[in-house]
Amino acid sequence: MSLPNALLALLVVEPMTGYDLHKHFEASVGHVWHAPDSQIYPTLKRMEAEGLLEGEDIPWGPRGKKRQYHVTPAGREAFKTWMNTPLEYARTRDPAHLKAAYLEWAEPDAAREHLLAHIEHHSSMLAQWQQTMKEIEDGTSGMLARRLAHTPKKDQEKTRAFKRFTYEGLIAQAEAEIAWAQRGLRLVDKLNG
Amino acid sequence: MSLPNALLALLVVEPMTGYDLHKHFEASVGHVWHAPDSQIYPTLKRMEAEGLLEGEDIPWGPRGKKRQYHVTPAGREAFKTWMNTPLEYARTRDPAHLKAAYLEWAEPDAAREHLLAHIEHHSSMLAQWQQTMKEIEDGTSGMLARRLAHTPKKDQEKTRAFKRFTYEGLIAQAEAEIAWAQRGLRLVDKLNG
DNA sequence: TGCCAATAACTATATACATAGTTAGTCTGT
DNA sequence: ACAGACTAACTATGTATATAGTTATTGGCA
Predict the structure, then answer these.
(1) B161 and A191 in contact by Cβ < 8 A?
(2) How far, CA to CA in Å, does A118 sit from each of A105, A132, A135, A176, B140?
(3) Which of B32, B42, B69, B159 has its CA 20 to 30 A from that of A186?
């Protein structure tokens, strides 16, 4: 259910091809909801069949063409409805904490490696999100800048504020994971003298 | 890849039927890796076919029987190998932060509802985990108690320490989510002030 | 004796997702 | 004139998950 809405979130800003979406995804919504192009293309077709989108073939070079999608009024309504509908929380599936719960089965060195990898992973997430946060602040963020250009002045601050809020949350998550893994490293050291 | 190992984590303690596993799952590993019984039964069969488990039919009442699985040496090795293998981090898919990123599309009341639901969800997670933490401390945690009874004294503290560590992490996650959503509530109030 | 909750073990179906490969046209530089 | 990178849009396959049943037995209580 999330992917169609993540696509709508981008397409309400401006019409795009599947390829465009795939590209912009990586640098914006994809931070919170990853999707490969092999999932995007069929989803766009389905959304067109459902009347949420309309696609038209536009020329590309002398012989080529590409299919550009734009949101229909029904699509815009569906997106708003989704935004006003409470979220269903999925049951936890957290491989890192799963392994952590049985870490006494790992060799001490492997345990350290796990925790270091956890720190490294979330550090790189953190760096990415801090970078995005900076781009939000100074308006160099690709999709957001495009978005704000289509937004009435009085709503711009709102839009920007919720983006900032989102990335603040992601940053807090990453920091919590890093702190936890560091505590884990100290624990492994203590347990192995 | 996680489910078979989550099952092994329980089965290395003592042989169990699919039904037993399903039950114990809910109260232990299921906290970090949920699985419905409809996934557990076929997975057990597959693991038996792969030689990780062996099952035997044991009588249950006058006419009934049930299939009890125990871990083979190969299964024990596979579990250890998994515990020593680095984790592959999956790309983010976080519906709550996805919605948060576009919260300006929601009615102010719906936005508040989202954030309140987020707080409520993670508060109940928090309560559950604090409860489990208490059970870890005083030895009333079902699977852990069973586990410790089969563990040499010198390793018991290690086992208990990693469980504590895991739930500390989950508690920190929940607290971070709650704090984030509360910041969100203040933001919504300010923007619609 | 009959009812009911719990135990036990599935089956069936529809998505969702990961991973990998395919086909074809365009644009840029040498 | 051609190579190579990029744009564009898929297809194919296998596994994972969610959701919702089904069938049968047991053990305890009224």
Answers:
(1) yes
(2) 18, 21, 26, 11, 30
(3) B32
